[in-house]
Amino acid sequence: MNTETQPIHIIGGGLAGSEAAWQAARMGARVILHEMRPERGTDAHQGDGLAELVCSNSFRSDDAEFNAVGLLHQEMRAMGSLIMAMADLNRVPAGGALAVDREAFSAAVQKAIDEEPLITLDRHEVTGPIPDSWDSVIIATGPLTSQSLATTIAELTGRDSLAFFDAIAPIVHKDSIDFSKAWYQSRYDKASLGVPGGGDGKDYINCPLDKEQYDTFIQALIDGDKTEFKEWEGTPYFEGCLPIEVMAERGPMTLAYGPMKPVGLTNPRNPTVKAYGIVQLRQDNKLATLYNMVGFQTKLTYGEQKRIFKTIPGLENAEFARLGGLHRNTFLNSPTLLDETLRLKTHPRIRFAGQITGCEGYVESASVGLIAGRFAAAEKTHASLPPPPDTTALGALLHHITGGADAETFQPMNVNFGLFPPLAESEGLNEKGRRLKGKDRKQVLSDRARRDLSVWLGTTGN
Question: What is the pTM of this model?
């Protein structure tokens, strides 16, 4: 049998799976993209569109100079990312961040996949075992892997998948917000200061709390009734997506130094009085009719969410387009199980991509899908495709997942400059011979990443 004529089977139509399918097809490989929705839904998805965003609508910072995720955006654009192209086409104001109209974004990805002749979309659940006739497989089922497929994965890996809680933030109808108390402003007035990507000053809505209101709110979060899932008890939370009430339990000032920090914001109605805490809401759709509560992922019951969140000044009459929720997230011990091209060491015809590999975040998930799709397509054509340099954002993340992390303590990870190799001594010193720090160091790391990515793309024919 001529294996080169067989398609690459990609399981999961989320960000990683859609990106992997697109990249493989762009390299000339035939792809069958398997997505179980709507045949089988999940606890978190609302519809059946590809690349549905189930948590925030933000791809986080778009700053490619001083922020690792912004640098990853830039690298993905340079590699022809479908996810980034559709995000750019469907972006909504969010200050220096890249946020999207989630429904329009999903529809755009769906349309691109539907119109790509080398991709066939199969709307049926793959439960396992993986057919022997599938010689090239990418499992990109993300944090919401079905139990039947999770069982198959456990059998393939010989290990149990890990799980942690992942919570969803509420979305509020803008016209139900009281603007006699709330106001528009981006933190540090980036728009009025002319900061690139700073938006128009109306990207965020701010609701201030004084000390008494803040203290009462914190206690209400702690005392409020929570949704409990007995089967998930004892599993760890991911630090980057903690439920708001879990943060409150860590200490009364945790939120004031976290998502409710009041710094960089000034109430125009009372500019001399500093708020004790501020709840920010970020635009969630292009029409600016919906705003999500930034950092307010929660496992409070629906009734408690309405009661407690309506005590926030400006949200007393809030109408919620969606309340917060909770879902399970599974991931592999990838440093032990996967090789440098994301293949399962014990079953090299099978690759993994996206959040199931232990990366965290929309952009990171899509980027791992991007490189997995390229690896699989190169393998089909017997082309040489070495991993991207670990001095790049994508290379650093890939290296961390496939061996750079400690397997004993492996947890989901966002891309960050801490994953990048140290600068060479000649690069890491300023004109006075002192070690670069802060933004100066980040700038040099970003410049090095762009340079090395350019060379890698050139040598790989991309």
Answer: 0.78
